[in-house]
UniProtKB/TrEMBL annotation:
Protein's UniProt name: Site-specific integrase
A Pfam family that the UniProt record links to this protein: Arm-DNA-bind_5
Keywords attached to this entry: DNA recombination, DNA-binding
GO molecular function, one term: DNA binding
Gene3D superfamilies linked to this entry: 1.10.150.130, Intergrase catalytic core (1.10.443.10)
PROSITE patterns on file: TYR_RECOMBINASE
Record's keyword annotation contains DNA-binding: yes
Domain of life of the source: Bacteria
CDD domains reported for this sequence: INTN1_C_like
Similarity section: Belongs to the 'phage' integrase family.
GO biological process: DNA integration; DNA recombination
UniProt domain Tyr recombinase: residue ranges: 210-405
Amino acid sequence: MTVAKFKVVIRREKLSKSTNEAPVCLRITKDRKVTYKTLLHVSPNYWDEKGQCVGKHHPNATALNAIISQRKAELEKETCMLALNDGSVSIETIRNKINDRFSFDLFEYADRYIENLRKNQKHATYKKYKSVIKKLRLYVGKGNLPIKSISLDFIEAYENYLMNNVGNNRNTTTVNLKVLAKLVGDIYRNYDLDETGNPFRKIKFKREQTERTYLGIDEIRKIQDLKLKLQSPLYDARELFLFECYTGFRISDILTLKWKNVTSGKISIRMRKTEKTLVVPMNDFVRSVLDKRRAVVENNGGQVLPNKYVFNILKVDVEEVNAQDALNAISSATAIINKQLKKIAEKVGIEKNISTHVGRHSYATALLTSDIPLPVIKEMLGHSDIKVTQIYAKVVDSKKDEVVNCLNKLYHG
């Protein structure tokens, strides 16, 4: 991070022939780039180059130098405040700020934000933001996008483009717009712009309820009762899936579950997606799986060590590799498991498209149909917002409507 340098200079090359005065400017240098802010105008004959001030022989030297000092201090403060908010702030952003121009470049800000995500190893968010900005660049068709260009009309036109030209569905389009809203909002806040001018403040984001695939108790039992060869790929995939059905854990948290997370009848994990701690009591099925896993290790002459995985699927220790390698390992393992689950579904005659996340949906739906209160389900799933949990409630309600419709058809013949 380079620090901006300041110097008061007179720009003789800008001498006005009509007034015989040149602009006295604050020269700001950063990253070998320069910008100027005019403070006042004075004849070059009165300028003290060494003192960076108006010479004493000017009749209003004291007043003019006071103006220079005050404006210099104000501009230095503004620039330093920008640097505090964003250490990698560019000379272009400084120029826009000190000249009160409403032309901050969204792409410039987004590039720095995305790079910081990469440096902080937030790779899932990094990939999402990078994809969103790539689409926007293609739409804009040029290398810059001044913040003043982002109006309600612009947003509506871009929304239409995403849905009708790119082919994004309603929810994917909303995800894209929310990322842009976050970046635009950051610029307004970080650079003290008038937030009433932010067009995203007037937008209510739309979402469509998606059909969440889940398995009923009978379907889960079919998979549970399927005879499979011990420790085969299908067996391992089935065990991981059922573990998700009985805990509601995400597959990433099950794959990275270590023995140190299992203590005195409870499982305590730090969820990879939200980085929040989740503690859940064990049920009988979970306890039986853990006992079996423990017995396999010990019967083969091994030890159940705290830092070893419960499910020995991942080939790397996610705590010892960088975030990108950990994400790649989990994604690769999940893809293989999903292929095995499709084979299992075919074997037991389930026509639904089963994937690892279906286990989590099945867990949530089972709790709801058992009349477990939403706030309790929210805590068991580790949701930060109960609105996310309510999506499952809507799914259950829609199925209740289907039952009513079915009975009405039966009644009316």
